[in-house]
Amino acid sequence: MEASAVELDLQRSVQAVLRQLRAQAPDLQSSQGMWRWSLHKKVDRDPGKSPALVRILLRELEKAESEDTRQVVIPLLHTLMYVLTKATGIPEELYQRTYTLCMRLLTLPSPYCTIALDCAIRLKTETAAPGTLYQRLVIAEQNLRSELYPYQERVLLFVDPELVSPSVCSALLLEIEAAQIQQTPEACMRHVVSHTLQAALGEACRTEALQRKLKASPRRALERYFHAVVAAVEQMASEPSSSRVGHLERLEEIYCSLLGPTAAARGRCGGDPLQDRPPNIPLPSPHITLHLWTDEEQLWKELVLFLRPRSLLRLSADLEALDLQGLLPDRTLARESVLSTDSGIERDFPLGAEEPPTTGSPEMEHAGLQRKGGIKKRVWPPDILMPGSWDGPPGLHRRTGRPSGDGELLPGVSRLHTARVLVLGDDRMLGRLARAYHSLRKRETQMFCLTPRLSLQLYYIPVLTPEPPSLDTSRNVDPFILDVITYYVRMGTQPIYFQIYMVKIFFSDLSQDSAEDIFLTELKVKIQESKFPKDVSSPRRRGAVESPGAELSLGYQKALLSHRTREVTISLRATGLVLKALPARDTDDHTCLNVSVTEVVKSSNLTGRSFSTVTNTFRAANIQIQSQDQRLMTLVLDKDNRRTFRDVVRFEVVPCPEPCSGAQKSKGLWLSSHQQEMERTRAKPKPLLMPINTFSGIVQ
């Protein structure tokens, strides 16, 4: 296909994506993913189209910037960065144009400036050492062992077997298995070496001959080439002042050792006919595990299993000081008594004995006389239990070269693991995720063994319709679902923080203890037909028409933009209520309850008394509702019939507080009553927010 025809075909595909991004009709918006997927597939099948697609996307981004059509900026940026991560042979001039554009976008409000800054940092790294983005992504997602880039990631896909049919689960499992069969560690290492050498050497690299040589190499030799390439790229990426010529010379040495100096020289001098188009070096999909969510503790167990292999091999002294009973079920594995012959001073240790400190790190700068393994009082950082300390929302403080949400919460303990938890379902699945997240955070206040080393990223794909009738469950499945999941977990870096609400429930039976639960999306209240047992003996006037619903007393704190406290108390007759915690629009406030009350209105006419209903809505920060007559209530949380509470006479809804540790709870025992009151006034409980990653976050 000629160059003009290629550009015309890609231009049509990009325009189709843009039309659907600007469309308001839901039927058009639902197919956005399919058009974007087909656009990426065109480049995957023919990598030679990548420079043309980059030019088209840049042109559309510059046009959107000049016309101030911001709704297409973030999707186009994501598409552009995805192409640049996978492609090789992109001219330097296109990288510079993209970087300049991202720097201009920094003047826009969040989330545009946040995403533009992240793209600019990654572009600067890629131009300094071509192939860095691809290499780091594959190493982390495929859990390839590398001392210079020791990060590991895993995607945990959770589905509810009661919400997703067995045929859909089978199709997902087939796609994941088919991808992982082709993505062996050896194949991924070959991809990294081939992509890096092609990105650095350009047309001088005989990629097809290189791939044949790598495929014929034994595992030990392949690992040697892989580690040599990673070392060259990481040294160049971490030292901006390094010589670009020296970097290319190191990679050329690796290239010559693979193909031999004669074959390599023929490629540089053009002695052999080069391939008409660059060979396809695929970007492997991340390591995904599929789980049927049947147990409340399943998320915790899977996160522990993700961390356990490395913790059994090597534990730093800081981690050994933690309570790891929840991480290692077998107490005999937690610690072994060994004879120590070291001096106990940290600087006397050889560098290879522990995690290798990086150049310029705090460990190297403050390598003074520090006692190793001594008994000392541990002081946790003041914000260790804050939501941001768990997932590390990406923002202006993100560092280059590391996965989002990483960092050090404790000295010497790095977050090398990233668990990307993706749930597939509806509001019921979101509610289950919220309960698991709350349980996990509560458990961490007691054990504190996952938080220092694990970055937890949450994702959600809604399933609103039943399975398509033409779903193919044969072995020849289309990887569309897997590709959509992969694109989402890679490019969805902007979290939206959702308030989790706690409900305390009181029942009509006084002998029954009150119950507590949490919800994320909504709480629905229905009025039962049954009454209190004492109502059986109560007389009713003959001929009286019984009003529908129940007489309710509502007390709530009104949600105001000024955050001032305004208490409201009303009594009314209603047939039902719905408390929604999620806003109707993405730009609304996410930290209040939208309450809809179906109120009963009495009216009198010539035919007698009649009743009608009207729906009233208001916003509340918290609310208490009690039945004033003999009618009881039924509560349904997050539209999940499995979480139904009957015979309720009263309930209270408040923002779920951040779980506090036992040390914080016992602190008040040592304070006087006046000090306790001052402590409560000064330190209000912070609300528990659950971050769910999206492509753009909240667009103001």
Automatic annotation (TrEMBL):
Gene Ontology, cellular component aspect: phosphatidylinositol 3-kinase complex, class IB
Chain positions covered by the region annotation Disordered: 346-372, 391-410
GO biological process: G protein-coupled receptor signaling pathway
Molecular-function GO terms, alphabetical: 1-phosphatidylinositol-3-kinase regulator activity
PANTHER family: PHOSPHATIDYLINOSITOL 3-KINASE REGULATORY SUBUNIT, PHOSPHOINOSITIDE 3-KINASE REGULATORY SUBUNIT 6
Name the UniProt record assigns to this protein: Phosphoinositide 3-kinase regulatory subunit 6 isoform X2
Organism: Phyllostomus discolor (pale spear-nosed bat)
Taxonomic lineage: Eukaryota, Metazoa, Chordata, Craniata, Vertebrata
